[in-house]
Amino acid sequence: MTFRITVDTDPWRANAVQTRDAIASAVGARGGLVPVIKGNGYGLRNDSLASEASLLGSEVIAVGTVFEVGDVTSTFSGTIVVLEPHDPRDSVAAAAWVELDHSEHGPRVIRTIASEEGWHSTIDAATRLGRPMRVLLEGLTSMHRFGLDESDVARLLSDARVPDAIVVEGVALHLPLAQPPAPRRPASAMLHDTTTGMVEQGTARAREVSAWALLWTALISDRLGAAAPDGAATLWVSHLDDSELASVRAAVPGIPLRARVGTRLWHGNRSTLSASGTVLAVHITDREVGYRQRRAPSGGGIVVVSGGTSHGVALSAPSSVTSVRARVAAAGTGALEAAGRSRSPFSLRGEQLWFAEPPHVSVSLLRIPRGFVPPAVGDEVPCVVRYTTTRADAVVWT
Questions:
Q1: Contact status, residue 110 vs residue 166, Cβ threshold 8 Å
Q2: What digits encode the pLDDT tens for the residues 18-59?
Q3: Which is the most buried residue in 12, 286, 334, 361, by most CB within 10 A?
Q4: What is the pTM of this model?
């Protein structure tokens, strides 16, 4: 029972190299790409993507959570940033951090701090371990997910314990995918702050980052001074395109700029990826079938194919429905499901097949209509998937 993802390796890698080089061109010599490797490894597995990051020459990667660090340590030897902020109030994650801090990999991990509790917990860990902890402070942006506001950042950088307990590696800024109408208000106010200069060029996202950058560099100079570690002024940004990166680079030419990129890097050429399930059985029957004993098509039959809910088949997240056409399609799909009919993501000879019933854990039952030539056991049936929610039995690099 094999549900697989196949990667057309050479063009897939060509896209990754092109993405790396485009970002390098936008940010210049100071900075570059930070591959993001998280969740299910964008369908391709975290350890494999960590190895690919090494092939790209990356010295630093980012993972989503502390629980994912172990996925990449065997195939990547550089610095690992954990994107989800450290917070001791998440007791399970906090225990995982303690274990990681005491491991051989602890010194090469950078944690993200987005709360005062996380800050003090990190300093306590440094005291226990007898070594300073590497951190990024996450600034609040128009994303409004995690982040410290400007006054919180200034206060934490004034902590007298910083030189001994904290190695500040920069500020992290996570921007929304959609362009905000304007930079977040405090950041916007900084655009006209005569103590930090003017930032009037670029999109709202770019101006928000540039404003934060000006404040950040001023704070590093004022609070840390000569004690500031190398690279403390670094900006770690997510969801800026190349033109926005170039705009930020023009606004703050002297500081390192690191672009954290996942989807564009790994899924930038979707034609290089394909998913498929293996035909396990074929039944030519019009009798009741499956758990729910629904009738097969008259004169047709049922194909049993590998690929079920454990693989992410037919699982979906809420979508952003913004057009009339999309609303009509969503309403039509809902009406069919209410009537017990659902199209599957599997197709044969270009024709999308219907589920006989909802997918099982590991397999799906598909209806084949009268007159349709059935596949043979062992054939591969193409499947359209959302790769970030797909866990294949095998990832095949061709």
A1: no
A2: 999 999 999 999 999 999 999 999 999 999 999 999 999 999
A3: 12
A4: 0.91
CATH says 271-397 is which class? Answer: mainly beta
Domain positions in the chain: 9-267, 271-397
Residues 302, 398 contacting (CB under 8 angstroms): no
**Cβ-based burial of 373 (10 A; exposed 0-12, middle 13-18, buried ≥19):** exposed
CATH 3.20.20.10 at 9-267, yes or no: yes
* CA 382 to each of CA 53, 114, 297, 397: distance values in angstroms, whole numbers, following the listed order: 28, 43, 21, 17
Q: Is the dihedral of CA 39, 40, 42, 48 positive or negative?
A: positive
Between the two ends of the chain, the Cα-to-Cα distance in Å is 20
Alpha carbon distance 308, 291 (integer Å) = 14
* Alpha helix positions (H), the chain: 9-27, 46-55, 69-72, 91-101, 116-129, 150-157, 162-165, 185-190, 204-219, 242-251, 263-267, 324-338
Task: Give the helix/strand (H/E) hosting 137.
Answer: strand 133-138
